[in-house]
């Protein structure tokens, strides 16, 4: 097992335990905001697209880091200031810092990735690397190709 696989597995277990022990939202012990993500591949053009639901997040508070096999989207959704004393009757919207690590199934070309933010959705399009586009890699026995 590669170190990157072990790191990914560790993050997934940490998130699983965090979700499992999450207390009801009104209890005052909120763990923060965890945006939902859609991730898909297209064939024409050959690319991977990630759509992150960031309603209420200022795009200036978002950071995106892409490598050939992973993307990290982080930032913060800040609670709006009411300008006066408020007394909540219901509190369901999550606020706070967030960080999503997505391990990609195929290699992408991070240098040509593009991002746009429209109507609360961050869309990141990452073209597949040339190696991923070919769909196969030749492997020789004994280290010779």
Range of strand content: 25-35%
Distance between the termini: 24 Å
**What is the N-to-C order of secondary-structure elements (H for helix, E for strand)?**
HEEEEEEEH
Biggest β-sheet description: 4 strands, antiparallel
Give the name of the CATH architecture: Sandwich
Mean pLDDT: 82
CATH topological fold name: Immunoglobulin-like
What does it look like?
The chain has 145 residues and is α+β, with helices and mostly antiparallel strands. The protein has one domain (32-143): Immunoglobulin-like (Sandwich), CATH 2.60.40.790. It contains two helices and seven strands. A four-stranded antiparallel β-sheet has the order 1-2-7-6, with no helix packed on it. The protein has a three-stranded antiparallel β-sheet with strand order 3-4-5, with no helix packed on it. The protein is globular. The model is unreliable at 21-30 (pLDDT under 50).
């Amino acid at each position: 097992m590669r170190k990157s696989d072990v790191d990914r597995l560790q993050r997934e277990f940490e998130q699983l335990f965090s979700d499992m022990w999450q207390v009801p939202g009104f209890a005052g012990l909120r763990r923060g905001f965890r945006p939902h993500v859609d991730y898909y591949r297209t064939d024409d053009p050959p690319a991977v697209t990630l759509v992150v639901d960031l309603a209420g997040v200022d795009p200036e508070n978002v950071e995106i880091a892409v490598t050939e096999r992973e993307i990290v989207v982080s930032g913060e959704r800040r609670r709006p200031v009411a300008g006066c004393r408020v007394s909540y009757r219901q509190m369901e919207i999550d606020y706070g810092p967030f960080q999503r690590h997505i391990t990609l199934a195929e290699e992408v070309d991070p240098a040509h990735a593009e991002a746009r933010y429209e109507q609360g959705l961050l869309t990141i399009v990452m073209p597949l690397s040339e190696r991923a586009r070919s769909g196969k890699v030749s492997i020789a026995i004994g280290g010779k190709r």
